[in-house]
Amino acid sequence: MKAIDPFSESHLIIRDPIWGDILIPRKWKPLLLCEQVQRLRGVSQLGTASLVYPGATHSRFQHSLGVYHVASLLVEELGKNGDLAKAELDQGDVEAFRAAALLHDIGQYPYSHNLEALRPYFKAHEEVTTDLILHSAVKEKLEAVGIDPQKVANIISPDGAHSLDRKNVLLHNMLDNPFDPDKLDYIVRDAYYCGVPYGYIDTRRLLRSARLSEDGTHIAITDKGIAPIESLIFSLYMMYRNVYWHHAVCIANAMVTRAVQDAIEDHGVNPATLARLRDSQLVEGLKQIENGKSNSAELVGRLEARDLYERALVFQPGRFRRGRVGLYEENPKARKEKEKELCEKFSPLVQSGLRNYDILLHIPFLDRAPRFDMEVYFRQPPEGRRNPVPFDSMEVSLLGPALVHNFENQTKKIRLVCVREVCNDTTGKACMLAEVIRERVRGRPADFDIV
């Protein structure tokens, strides 16, 4: 595969603080400028995380450019080592892969995964992305530069109705694997903008270690990539623990989710009108419900003022990962009913009438965990082993399984949060609502049936 010439006038040069110069074919400019892509300038990469890390205001648009760049680096390395030719990937396949990397997030919702958690009302963003690629102006822009929209859609989210050949399976797995371009950009980018030290990954060494698997359907690594993969897994774990699932971020996410859910269920807002908005448009729309007098308006107003709820109780996921909590994640209506029930139960205990959104639950994505399902090729395999060797074997690395165990049992915390207000308990003593909740639930947890 011919390397891109940075001095060629056939490419746009976009300056990026993470990767430096990002080169995009000039003929792709109409694709880059179409509304579906440009909307991502107004969709924050980390949503409410900027309430904790003020620098985290970067956008999905910046991230999409970064993923495109890393995807280009990957195919460049696979071209150098002969794997592109071995896999019989031609220029059309490579261009479709690069386009998929650029477009992979155009279906993201405002405030990203908060809306996606409301599963009865919002589809997975990958489904929305493929719909846009196949049924919007994006389709025309792709066809204008000779790229097959269906191929791009299949790379992002394989359609079960189509029987994909080996090449297309490989292209999808190149975009979705333990060290895919998406992860390699967002971990580094998110850490940079948050100002935390967890995001350094030796990206070029890792990509140089990339190899085609024996069956030609996915990407593996050589033993030179083991240390960079360990760094990637550890960085991902640390970012979830300290940034993505920081307690204040989770509290703000619970408030956004409930505000949107109430707008739909209690105020008749059409989910379709919310899905294609930018973050600021979503907030302004929620603030206008019932002339700013609704629960949705109050919740987002509190977010704008950073008047966040506080933690009342934290349940360790190792004990409560499934069961009722799984129901709340799968069925947001059940979670909301539990929140309303808790408000009713605690109202007489604080001598005041709690509103049905004064106590909220935050449930983490239970299926989210670092991946390390890959193969390693050694120049000289360990004694008694033959290539390829699974990454999580004793001879390669046990870091992945150890971190996933910690991820499951310490990081995925289930939080009960409430308004930060002074109230009176049943004795007339002034106290915080969170104090009353902690005292009552810890003493008789079965009475409240939360987890």
Walk me through what this model shows.
The structure is a single chain. With 451 residues, the chain is of the alpha+beta class. It has three domains: 11-195, Orthogonal Bundle (Hypothetical protein af1432); 246-307, no CATH class; 309-451, no CATH class. It is built from 22 helices and eleven strands. The chain has helices spanning 29-33, 35-38, 60-80, 83-86, 91-103, 113-116, 125-135, 137-144, 149-156, 166-175, 181-194, 203-208, 226-244, 247-265, 271-275, 279-287, 295-304, 317-320, 324-330, 332-346, 399-411, 433-443; strands spanning 11-16, 20-25, 210-212, 219-222, 310-315, 359-362, 375-377, 389-390, 414-418, 422-424, 430-432. Strands 3-4-7-8 form a four-stranded mixed sheet. Strands 5-9-6 form a three-stranded antiparallel sheet, sandwiched between helices. Helix 5 crosses helix 9 (149-156) and helix 7 (125-135) runs antiparallel to helix 9 (149-156). The chain is globular and about 75 Å long. The chain starts with 10 loop residues before the first strand and ends in an 8-residue tail after the last helix. The mean pLDDT is 91.
